[in-house]
Design goal:
heterodimer, A: mainly alpha, 12 helices, B: alpha+beta, 4-stranded mixed sheet, 8 strands
C-alpha cells in the first residue's frame, strides 16, 4: 500500500494534519445544524434501507433550492454523497460528524490531486472523488477496521470513474443519488472481507494510471491546513445551507 | 472524415440500439439461438456454483444489509434482492470462480451481466423473448468489446466490467420494452460510470466490479423506463464520447447487423481458470497421463506474452490467485491429473506436491504466439517430453457440447440444487410461456434440494 492509500484510510482528526482542530470547529458546527435537520428527514424515511436512505438524502440535498450559482460554486458532486452516506448510517452524532468532516477532506484532497492527473474534458474529478470519499466516510461511521477500510477504498475506486458529461438537473440528481447508494454499498461490502488490491489508486493499473498520467500531485498546503475549510466554510455557514436546509427538509 | 469521426457523428448507442431492438422483435438465426441456449446454461452453471462460495455469501449479506430484501431472484438462494442488487450478486456469482465463458479475441466474459439482466426481470416475459434478450445482451457487449479492443484492455481497463454495464442494460432494457431511443439512453446512462480496472485481477474485487457495472446497467434501464433520469447525453461513442477516453478511435461501425455473430465465438470454460491458462492446463493434463510428477526436474511453458502478463503468479496464496496462475494450473494438472474446482481450492493451493512442482514451472513468453496456444516441455531423469495445444477444449474451435455442459451444471449444482429442472427449463426456453420455471429452477425456493 502506498502513501496515498494509507493517508486516505488512516486520516484522523489530529496530527499529522495540522490545524485540524481549528478547521474542524468551523466546519462541524454548521454541519451539525445541517445534520440535525437531515436527521429529521432521515427519520421520516422510516424503514428505508441504508442505501435507499442515502440515495434519497442525496437527492433531496441536490434538489434543495440552491441558486444555480451556489450549486455550481459548491460542487455538489464533491460533498453530497459523503453527507448522505453518513446521515443514512450514523446513529452516533459525533461519529457521524467526524466522518463527514473527514470525508469532505478526502474529497477535496482527491479531487485536487486528480485534477492534476486526469484530463478534465473526459473525467469528472469531483464526481470521482466524491464517490470514493463517501465510501471512506461511511466506513468510518460503521466502524470498519483498517483492513476493511482498505477494501472499501478498493471497491469504491473500482466503481468511481465518472465521465464528464453535460447533465441536466434531473440527470445530475439521479447520478448523485446513484453515487451515494453505491458508495454506501462499497463500505458495506468492504466490511464483508472480500479481497482487494493493495494499491487501487496508485497501482500500475489502478485508478490514477488508467484514467490519466498516474501521477498524484497533492495540493501544496496538504498536511499543513484543513483543505476543505476554504471550500466548505462558506457552504456550511448558516446563510447558505442552514436556512435552505430547514426550508427544504423540515 | 475518418471512420472514427463517422462513428461519433452517428452515435454508437443509437445505431446499436436500432439493431438490437430489430433483432429482438424479429428473432435470431437458429444457430445463434442455439448458441445462446448453451451460453445461458453455462452461465447458470457457473452462477449456481459460484453462489456457494464463501465470498458470495459475504457479498450477499452485505447487499442485503445495505439494501434490504427485494423481489428479484438470486441464483442458488431462496432469498431475493432488489433488481440492481440481485444483478450485482448474480453477476458476481457467475464470474467469481472463473468458470464462466470467454471470448478469446477480446478477453470478454459476456454471460454474467446478460444472465443477471435477465434474472432481474419480471418472469412474465415469454421464454423466447427472454432468450433473445439474453443473446442480444451478450452480443452488444461483444460488439463494443471488439470495437475497443485491444487498446481498452491494454490501458488497464477490465473490459468485462466496462461492457457488463452494456450487457445488463440491454438485456433488462429489452425485457422492459424500451424502444431504440430508450435502449440507447439506457446504455449511455449505464456507462456514465466506467467501472473496473485490471489492478483488481487476482482478488475478489474483480467480481465486485463486474457486479457493480451490471447493477448500473439494470438500474439505468429501470431509470430510463420510469423517466427518473431525464435526458441522457451520448456517452457511448458520441462526439465527446467514451471511446475517446478509454480506447483508441474506433475503426468502422459498431453494429449487430447479422454479418458476424460474435456470440458464436464465445468459448464455454471447461476449467475454473483464466482463459489464457486453458491450453497450458490441457497440455499438462496430457502430460500427466504419461509421466510421474515425482520425477519432474523442470517444467518450461511457452505461451503468449499476454498470457504471461496476465497469469504469471508463481506463488499464489488464494483461490482467486490460483485461478489466474499459469504455474498453479500446470502444477495442479500434473500432480492430480485433473483441473476441476478442487484443484483450485485452498487445499490445492497449499498442497505440498503442487507447491513443489509449481516452483519448477518456468514461463517463456513467445512473441507472435496465440493466446490459445501453449507448449509444455518437461524434463525428467530419463527423458524430455513436449506437449503442444493450439486450440484448447472450450475455445471456439472445440466447444463444449450439450452433454458436457449438462455435466458441468450437475457438478456445480451437486448437493445444492437439482440439475434436472434447470437443464430442462433451459432447453425448453424457446417454447416456454414465461420465465417462471427457469427462475424457480435456479433458486432454492421453488425447486429446493
Amino acid at each position: 500500500m502506498t502513501q496515498l492509500e494509507s493517508l486516505l484510510i488512516t486520516m484522523t482528526l489530529g496530527p499529522p494534519i495540522v490545524r485540524i482542530a481549528a478547521g474542524l470547529e468551523k466546519i462541524v458546527e454548521p454541519v451539525s445544524c445541517c445534520g440535525e435537520a437531515l436527521q429529521n428527514f432521515r427519520s421520516s424515511l422510516g424503514t428505508a434501507s441504508p442505501a435507499s436512505a442515502a440515495a434519497q438524502i442525496a437527492g433531496r440535498l441536490h434538489d434543495m433550492p440552491w441558486s444555480s450559482k451556489v450549486a455550481q460554486q459548491h460542487r455538489l458532486e464533491l460533498w453530497v454523497p459523503t453527507v448522505a452516506c453518513c446521515l443514512a448510517t450514523a446513529s452516533d452524532t459525533s461519529r457521524g460528524i467526524e466522518a463527514v468532516a473527514i470525508g469532505l477532506e478526502v474529497a477535496v484532497l482527491l479531487s485536487a490531486g486528480l485534477s492534476s492527473s486526469i484530463p478534465d474534458e473526459t473525467w469528472d474529478a469531483d464526481g470521482i472523488a466524491g464517490g470514493v470519499a463517501a465510501a471512506l466516510a461511511c466506513a468510518r461511521v460503521i466502524g470498519l477496521s483498517h483492513a476493511e477500510t482498505a477494501s472499501t477504498l478498493a471497491m469504491s475506486a473500482a466503481q468511481a470513474p465518472r465521465f464528464s458529461i453535460n447533465a441536466g438537473a434531473r440527470l445530475r440528481s439521479h447520478l448523485i443519488e446513484r453515487t451515494a447508494a453505491a458508495s454506501l454499498e462499497a463500505a458495506f461490502v468492504g466490511r464483508s472481507g472480500l479481497s482487494a488490491p493493495n494499491a487501487p489508486l496508485t497501482g500500475e493499473r489502478g485508478l490514477l494510471a488508467v484514467l490519466g498520467s498516474g501521477r498524484f500531485d497533492p495540493p501544496d498546503e496538504q498536511g499543513d491546513v484543513w483543505l476543505s475549510e476554504s471550500l466548505f466554510g462558506q457552504l456550511f455557514s448558516d446563510e447558505v445551507i442552514g436556512t435552505d436546509t430547514e426550508r427544504g427538509l423540515l | 472524415m475518418t471512420a472514427a469521426t463517422a462513428v461519433g457523428t452517428f452515435g454508437v448507442s443509437r445505431s446499436l440500439a436500432e439493431d438490437l431492438v430489430t433483432w429482438y422483435r424479429t428473432g435470431l438465426p437458429a444457430v445463434v439461438e442455439r448458441q445462446a441456449l448453451k451460453c445461458l446454461l453455462n452461465a447458470i452453471a457457473a452462477g449456481v456454483g459460484g453462489s456457494r462460495d464463501v465470498s458470495a455469501q459475504a457479498l450477499f449479506e452485505a447487499l442485503r444489509d445495505a439494501n434490504g430484501p427485494g423481489g428479484a431472484p438470486v441464483l442458488g438462494r431462496a432469498e431475493r434482492l432488489g433488481p440492481a442488487p440481485s444483478g450485482m450478486m448474480n453477476a458476481f456469482s457467475v464470474t467469481q470462480n472463473d468458470f464462466d465463458d470467454a471470448h478469446f479475441e477480446t478477453i470478454l466474459h459476456p454471460g454474467a451481466p446478460a444472465l443477471a439482466g435477465l434474472v432481474a426481470s419480471r418472469p412474465e416475459a415469454p421464454g423466447i423473448m427472454g432468450l433473445r434478450a439474453f443473446a442480444l445482451g451478450c452480443e452488444a457487449q461483444l460488439a463494443v468489446a471488439s470495437a475497443i479492443s485491444p487498446s481498452h484492455y491494454a490501458r488497464g481497463w477490465h473490459t468485462s466490467s466496462t461492457c457488463a454495464a452494456i450487457g445488463s442494460s440491454v438485456t433488462h432494457g429489452l425485457l422492459l420494452g424500451l424502444d431504440e431511443d430508450g435502449l440507447a439512453e439506457a446504455m449511455d446512462l449505464a456507462l456514465v460510470d466506467a467501472v473496473g480496472f485490471r489492478e483488481s485481477h487476482g482478488t475478489e474485487t474483480k467480481g465486485y466490479q463486474v457486479g457493480r457495472a451490471t447493477a448500473n446497467g439494470i438500474a439505468a434501464a429501470m431509470a430510463v423506463f420510469s423517466g427518473a433520469a431525464g435526458t441522457v447525453p451520448s456517452v457511448l461513442g458520441g462526439s465527446d464520447g467514451t471511446f475517446k477516453g478509454i480506447a483508441d478511435p474506433v475503426i468502422g461501425s459498431v453494429r449487430v447487423d447479422g454479418n458476424r455473430w460474435h456470440l458464436r465465438d464465445v468459448g464455454l470454460k471447461p476449467y475454473p481458470a483464466g482463459l489464457v491458462c486453458f491450453s497450458a492446463i490441457e497440455a499438462a493434463l496430457r502430460a500427466a497421463e504419461e509421466i510421474d510428477y515425482h520425477q519432474i526436474e523442470s517444467v518450461r511453458l511457452e505461451v503468449s506474452p499476454l498470457a504471461c502478463e496476465l497469469a504469471d503468479r508463481s506463488d499464489p496464496t488464494t483461490e482467486s490467485e490460483a485461478r489466474v496462475s499459469l504455474q498453479h494450473c500446470v502444477a495442479a494438472a500434473l500432480v492430480e491429473g485433473a483441473a476441476g474446482p478442487d484443484q483450485f481450492s485452498i487445499r490445492a493451493v497449499e498442497d505440498i506436491a503442487i507447491t513443489r512442482v509449481r516452483r519448477e514451472v518456468e514461463l517463456a513468453p513467445k512473441l507472435g504466439m496465440s493466446n490459445q496456444s501453449a507448449i509444455l516441455s518437461i524434463r525428467t531423469p530419463s527423458t524430455t517430453g513436449t506437449w503442444s495445444v493450439d486450440h484448447p477444449l472450450g475455445g471456439p474451435d472445440r466447444p463444449l457440447d450439450e452433454g458436457a455442459l449438462e455435466d458441468k451444471l450437475a457438478l456445480l449444482a451437486s448437493g445444492h440444487l437439482l440439475p434436472g429442472p434447470i437443464i430442462s427449463s433451459v432447453w425448453a426456453l424457446p417454447d416456454a410461456k414465461d420465465l417462471g420455471d427457469l427462475f424457480a429452477a435456479m433458486c432454492l425456493s421453488g425447486s429446493g434440494r
